[in-house]
Design brief:
By secondary structure, this protein is α/β, with parallel strands linked by helices. Helix content is about 35%, strand content about 20%.
Length: about 280
């Protein structure tokens, strides 16, 4: 390798915890190759405790930019010099560009999710209702993007910490179990019966995390509903939720399509170039 090629080589990464499941390196490799950009793309496990050192970590690997996945999408804003409107509206970021030591944070999850839905023939707009499972960074980004399209949004999430308000009397219904939260929301609002789009933005279904206890809530969905699981499997197989939705005859969108569409936006932020297959 010549000195010039060393100088022109770029390095990007995806940070998170866990990180071994990430397919980001495989996603970006053909993009960089087509653009004739010599680049490495790394998986970097960064714990919550290590995140405050992200500038040192980025400098150590000579990163030109990085993607951010769970659990850092909200916290990363604190460590960036500038926050784009896309990240500010969502309250979280998933893409950071680095130029002359300046960290700029963006969010491509929301627009990427809308683009993935459109690819599947679902066009969010006024009069439509989306139900988003989860309240993390990806959920907030999707909610902000869908609302900007005029779509109504309801978030359903489980409580992470037990407390006196976390369960019905005598512990009959534990609200830390997401399916119980869904059942209560459906009983009160009928949200699942009327939903045009249901998005799983929780880690449930991810390898090594655990899955839904049951998928009976899928039977509540109307025939025209689209089920979008942000989770994807490294081997490309369907998640339990996607399998249940397909069995029910519903339209589905897998997390690989979110990864792809947000990746197109990220690639342009990092390189200034459009990727065309």
């Amino acid at each position: 390798m010549t000195d010039e090629s060393k100088q022109n080589k770029r390095t990007y990464a995806v940070i998170g915890d866990p990180i071994a499941h990430s397919r980001s390196p495989e996603l970006y490799a053909p993009m960089f190759e087509q653009a004739n950009i010599d680049a490495d793309f790394l998986r970097l496990r960064v714990t919550r405790e290590e995140l405050p050192r992200i500038r040192d970590i980025a400098a150590g690997y000579a990163l030109d930019g990085f993607a951010v996945t769970m659990p850092h999408k909200r916290a990363i804003l604190e460590y960036c010099d500038a926050v784009d409107g896309s990240a500010a509206r969502a309250g979280c970021g998933n893409i950071v560009t680095i130029s002359e030591g300046v960290f700029r944070c963006f969010n491509t999850d929301g627009e990427g999710a809308v683009n993935a839905l459109r690819e599947a023939g679902v066009f969010p707009g006024r009069g439509m209702q989306a139900v988003i499972l989860g309240s993390g960074g990806a959920a907030k980004a999707a909610a902000a993007a869908l609302r900007s399209e005029g779509c109504g949004v309801l978030n359903i999430s489980r409580r992470h910490e037990p407390g006196p308000e976390s369960s019905v009397q005598d512990g009959f219904l534990d609200l830390r179990i997401l399916e119980n939260c869904i059942a209560i929301a459906e009983r009160i609002t009928g949200c699942m019966s009327f939903a045009d789009i249901v998005i799983n933005a929780t880690p449930l279904g991810m390898e090594g995390i655990g899955d839904f206890y049951d998928f009976s809530f899928v039977k509540k969905l109307k025939a025209s509903c689209c089920v979008f699981d942000f989770v994807y499997r490294k081997d490309g197989s369907d998640t339990g939720l996607i399998s249940a939705a397909k069995e029910a005859g519903l339209r589905t969108v897998g997390g690989d399509r979110l990864l792809y569409h947000q990746g197109l936006l990220a690639f342009k932020l990092w390189t200034g170039l459009d990727y065309k297959e």
